[in-house]
User: Fold these one by one.
Assistant:
Number 1:
Amino acid sequence: MVLVFAESGDGRIKKSGQEAITFGKKLATQAGTTCTTLLLGPIDAPGDAGIYGADLVVHLPHDGFTHFDSQTWSRAICEVATARNAEYVVLSHSSRGKALTGRVAIRLQAGCVSGVTELPNLSSGCLVTKGVYSGKAFASLKIATAIKVLSVMGNAIQPTKDGTAVPVEVMDLEPGKAGVTFVKTDKVEGTVPLPEAERVVSAGRGMKGPENWGIIEDLAAELGATTACSRPVADSDWRPHHEHVGQTGIAIRPNLYIAIGISGAIQHLAGVNRSKVIVVINKDPEAPFFKAADYGVVGDLFEVVPRLTKAIQDMKAAG
Amino acid sequence: MNVLVCVTKTPDTTAKIGFVEQNTRFDISGVQFIMNPYDEWYALVRALELKEAQGGKVTLISVGGADCDQVIRKGLAIGADEAVRIDVQPVDAYQVATEIATYVKANTFDIVFTGKESIESNGSEVGAMIAEILDWPFLSYASKMDMEGPTATVDLEIEGGEDTVQADVPFVISAAKGLAEQRIPNMRGIMMAKSKPLQVVPGSGVAPRTAISSYTMPKEKSAVHLVDPENMSELVRLLKEEAKVI
Ligand SMILES: Cc1cc2nc3c(=O)[nH]c(=O)nc-3n(C[C@H](O)[C@H](O)[C@H](O)COP(=O)(O)OP(=O)(O)OC[C@H]3O[C@@H](n4cnc5c(N)ncnc54)[C@H](O)[C@@H]3O)c2cc1C
Ligand SMILES: Nc1ncnc2c1ncn2[C@@H]1O[C@H](COP(=O)(O)O)[C@@H](O)[C@H]1O
């Protein structure tokens, strides 16, 4: 059996959770088995996990799972995995997933691979692919243990939505005493967080100063995109640190990455080169970023960006 | 506070990545190795700040061969008091975490620091595994940490924001940007590092559970399609009709 731990928030299955379920279902089909989805804490319609591929849902609704704690949550996941003889445990390579995956693997005495980018190859054993060297290469790893723990990279798989709600088994499991005490959450309201964003508009030192970011925000708003920036921009406090992408910032893989006034240093590319489509806007035709780009515009960003925003508005107006 | 900082070596961030032996091994020729940035810039410096504020000792630990010593010496030059190297070629996170946790059990530490990930493995596995083996709390992707007595109040990076949580020592914490400000070793630190203890101990012999079978390079991008800067509706058309991303 494949057990998927799907994350939820605000009473719904998160996008990363949907991706993990679809991944788990496809893996189960390959392995000739079924996919059970585990949900922790209060959630409105747990059976909806079936929409993304789950065959069965196990729900632990206890209030004690409202706030995240890697110790109690990994214990709960492993308890369900062991009781139901899970052969594979699938998680998301999200902030919570990163705190859980290693713990779950240790408890289950399982080999684990985190940040998996493709379905495993099961033709001889279990061969799993993930990005290494910050996206500059991929590695195929062989997992030698009976139980295997995988965490799925964000945007590595498109959640399928053609299933229907499935039966839910509610379990009355108490989480026990958490290792950490929750104090508060601060979230940037209104935008899709960078690791989950499908479209990203990113800008660099070519912007000259923080006062010029209006054109970036306008373009992002028009595209429904999240904004990002290069490291020197965050380091000079032109933009908040959580927008910094690259080898030492956040690694992302959106469908569309638009890089504006960013030269394309190797450390920047390391965090964004897995994007599906890259558009580069730079006045220097020799900027290294053009080598990594699908579409390029050589021009002054202060003219090109408002023109692009306008063109998108025109497209929308034309329907 | 008795603090252990896990440090690993990684190829320099500008290194050209290549493979040898039918793409089964990383090609080290011409590659400079550095201390993993999260270990050096944030984990180690925050550990040193804790010692400066409350006293105690900062120990570095690295699982690897003699080729790690240069990175370990740099950590000593930045200010760590002493170091241990577990003399094992690391194959996977399980093996590294087991070796480190074994060392922690045989000694006394209040806090174990790791980086949020190695920029080589992109794993984010070792810290969580150490925490589980020790059955300690794990503070993952910490961007701010205040200590008061035995209690840490910590900001953790989450998608689109941060969680604030509290935990008492002992715990494992993984360091993200913001936790501290990078320090450059000075001449005095470099001289003093030469006489600080670097103990080399044999590994426990634990076997890894995963192994790399081969590497591949990402597909080469085809040449960039340049669009006239005057004609942004053409770019919009391409993104919509050809790339199908808007
Ligand atoms: C260890 C290490 C880790 C690093 N990690 C990261 C990381 O994670 N992320 C990251 O981003 N960087 C990282 N860096 C920094 C990286 O090497 C580059 O210095 C940085 O990415 C450059 O940022 P930039 O492209 O915004 O600025 P610049 O390199 O200064 O480029 C600005 C670009 O804007 C263009 N431009 C200027 N004016 C205009 C205009 N009017 N219209 C159009 N284009 C214009 C210029 O042609 C130029 O290409 C790291 C460096 C090191 C040493
Ligand atoms: N060989 C090693 N020796 C000591 N610490 C390590 C080693 N490998 C990884 N670590 C630590 O674990 C962190 C996360 O690594 P990883 O799980 O490989 O992404 C690193 O930032 C280091 O602090």
Note: Chain B has six helices and 15 strands.
Number 2:
Amino acid sequence: MAGIEISALTKEFPGGVQALNGLDLSIADGEFFALLGPSGCGKTTLLRTIAGLETPTSGSVRIGDRDVTRLPPGARNVAMVFQDYALFPHMTIEDNIAYPLKIRRQARETRLKHAHDVGSQLGLDGLMRRRPAELSGGQQQRVALARAVACHPSAFLFDEPLSNLDARLRLEARTFLKRLQRQLGVTTVFVTHDQAEALALADRIAVMEAGRIRQIGTPREVFGRPANTFVAGFIGSTPMNLLPGVVRDGAVLVAAQQLSVLDVPDGEVVVGVRPEYVAVTENGPLAGAVATVENLGTSSLVTVDVDGLSIGAVVPEDREVEPGTRVALNPTRVLVYRDGELVS
Amino acid sequence: MKQEEWRLAWLLCAPAVIVMVAVTAWPIVYSVWLSLQRADLKFPQQQEFVGLENYATVLSNDYWWTAFGITLFITVVSVAIELVLGMALALVMHRTLVARGLVRTATLIPYGIVTVVAAFSWRFAWTPKTGYLAEAFAQGAPLTERASALAVIILAEVWKTTPFMALLLMAGLALVPDDLLKAAAMDGAGWWQRFTKVMLPAMKPAILVALLFRTLDAFRIFDNIFVLTAGANETSSVSMLTYNNLIKGLNLGIGSTMSVLIFLAVAAIAFLFVKIFGAAAPGSDDGGRR
């Protein structure tokens, strides 16, 4: 088991595409770490560089106390689970799980016994003699996990581990994955484009954009205090309200109404407030007519037009309002961004 | 209604069926019929039904078995060499990043040349005094001795059809999922292990198709031998022998018998490939089930 240290990592693909741009990242031993970002942000390249499937243009990768930057993937003692699982179609499940051990020249008896132990730990009893094509997506994913677990790596790397499962199975697999990681306590890095998945699974999240890390933090930090407007817009299942505003003598004004008083220099800002933290009330600084109501199950997203601004607010299911009704909004936990960066 | 539909179905199929019958079924049936006759154009009056007598004649004849052995030898050796070289070429073409089109085109040139033309260039090249290969590599005349003549025939065959093999195998290579190779690399598999344990199994269907096509083709080898040795010094293939009996000897009965035997051998080869090897191909309809 080991932590992962990445310093000044740069990867430039032929043709000048800068996939990673001087990345520094430190992942603690036993941590469940998410690389989150939109497609093309470099998160998969970063994972593959840690794995050794890509060679960095410059910078270094350390796993534990070893510099692995120039080591081939097989010598790094990390296991990877691929997005489409990459099971060998011509081998049985037990042979698939035991394959890494076969490469390490363990005797057939030993490695099959080990494969069966790991298999039953992951609920694969009775499937060991089958072939991958005969298994469901969820089962295949568990086989891929078992293959990773079986070789006792110092770190797991998961590439979009849940994206090939349907929505219901994904939730189940998410819980399973989190429990497994807790049990094994192995440093785990996973890539996802799904912010809900990252929030649910990870101990810490690195949010990436265009080859750079825009914020590293716990799910609570990243959700509650996004470091910049990019992260603010990316995290959260209902998009954060990012409203043009001004600060005058410490007072934060949106649509000429004072939302709060903060210790911020005067000037134009972007005011961020999550719809979950906007209360629909009789008395509030902002007033307007309800434009749309979107049902989210246990709550509804209400969009209110305030002086030409659309502001979202989440209301509980018994507090819904009819479109057209005039309401007041009371935003709390107001964040202020200047030039895209969080100032308060 | 049912009958109407059947009539329409037959009407729609009719043109294809008529053409197939005319160009394929009828010649086959006619050769089978001829093979059961004593039919020699040198003695046209004596045509009569003789049952399986022609088969007994051919199958108890040394010339036939020699030619059969030579054909098998050429087939096995040349297809084996082609498979290895073709795989190497396919890997090179698959991996090439620069001038990919140029490399592929250059590789395919031998396959684009008419076999007879290529065979003549080989013949001239191996002719003593005038041929550059004969001057450089051989004492005497390689095409006049059995072993060296067979070697030249196989060389010509391999040179000509390796590109075809490479092309089919390259299509198979493109089917190997990249992630599988990466996963094997993560597990610590070296290049050779990735090739034998991941690529070859994934390519198995493509390899079988390539082998089947080439084996069937090689078994009917004719033009290379016709040009290079004309079957001298016991280098005749079964097709050469059939040609000699049918066209030169004008013995339609014996010639047809040989044609039918070649047809049966080819059918047996195809059956062998499809039934025995083909059944275990991963990714086929049964999902690789045992």
Note: Chain B touches chain A through 24 residues (CB under 8 Å).
